[in-house]
Amino acid sequence: MSTIGITDREFSRFQRFIYANAGITLPAAKKALVNGRLAKRLQQYGFGSYSEYFKLLTSGKAAQEVQTAVDLLTTNETSFFREPKHFELLREVAITARSRTQPLRVWCAASSTGEEAYSIAMVLADCLKGRPWEVVGSDISQRVLERARGGHYTAAQARNVPRSYLHRFCLKGIGAQNGTVLVDRALRGRVRFIQVNLNEPLPQLGTFDLIFLRNVMIYFNNDTKREVVIRALSLLKLGGYLLIGHSESLGDLTTAVKLVAPSIYRKS
Ligand SMILES: C[S@@+](CC[C@H](N)C(=O)[O-])C[C@H]1O[C@@H](n2cnc3c(N)ncnc32)[C@H](O)[C@@H]1O
Fold first, then answer.
1. What are the tens digits of pLDDT across the range 190-209?
2. Whose CA is closest to atom 9 on ligand 1?
3. pLDDT, block means (10 residues), the chain with 268 residues
4. Catalytic residue positions?
5. Ligand 1 and 22: CB distance under 6 A
6. Is the CB of 217 inside a 6 Å radius of any atom of ligand 1?
7. Which of 17, 43, 88, 203 is the most buried (most CB within 10 A)?
8. Ligand 1, closest atom to CA 115?
9. CA gyration radius for the chain?
């Protein structure tokens, strides 16, 4: 398939589009990425230019296509037990919460294809045994949410899941499913995946003991980041933890939380 080129002018329209819809700032270096990721949509509609596709997206009559474009323009890289220090903290918090009657509640706020939310759920199921807990996973992209709900991964994707957790919480594919891993129904049933745009007022989610807000703020400019963090922190309980990606920082965006370890903040 020969790809139609995107002009600078067209690219700047898509920059505005994804900023308006997801708060994502796409630098000029992402022009080729936008070109490549949207090429199939132009082909699907038989459009000869990115302007035609942009016209469709902004017509007000193509909500589903807007979602598809957002899905395609987000970057969903993730893995099980990514940045393991955070899971050590989660384990400590869960163990301390054993004596509580209230459920321990964790929000995985940019859950992508689900690996992060299921990693959290495995630790909670392990440490809290019969005690109550809840995990909410959310993302802007419907495509990744569908995959997260399915909980089906390649063995390579599941390579960081500890062996004992693989045995307890996952089914190994056989026959046609050889080389894949399915998070078992019981654990899947305990993780709720919903669509949440962090760049809009948040739905009623209740308050959380921990919020994983990892590797998503890198796509936001400072103003968006501040708004997203303030909104997320409004759902964090006093004494609760906000975890961000190791390459991210809150700088002086807020005084509502204090840095207690690299990429770990606590609300006081
Ligand atoms: C690189 S992944 C990070 C996944 C996971 N948190 C991790 O650290 O492995 C970033 C995710 O943020 C989501 N995202 C981007 N903008 C968003 C927004 N405005 N609201 C909610 N999710 C968003 C993307 O769809 C993507 O799945």
1. 999 999 999 999 999 999 99
2. 78
3. 86 98 97 96 97 97 97 97 98 95 97 98 95 97 98 97 97 92 97 98 98 98 96 98 96 93 96
4. 37, 139
5. yes
6. no
7. 17
8. 9
9. 20
Tracing tokens 């000029």 back to the chain, one arrives at 28
Among protein residues, the one with the nearest Cα to ligand 1's atom 2 is 76
24 alpha carbon – ligand 1 mean position (Å): 10
Name the residue of 73, 82, 87, 112 whose CB sits within 8 Å of the most ligand 1 atoms, as the mutation to test its pocket: 112
Query: Residue holding tokens 């370890």?
Result: 261
142 lines ligand 1 (CB under 6 A): no
Inter-residue contact 151 to 118 (CB < 8 Å): yes
- The per-residue pLDDT for range 2-60, each reduced to its tens digit, is 679 999 999 999 999 999 999 999 999 999 999 999 999 999 999 999 999 999 999 99
User: Residue 210 corresponds to which tokens in the numbers above?
Assistant: 């921990």
83 within ligand 1 shell (Cβ under 6 A): no
Predicted structure pTM score: 0.97
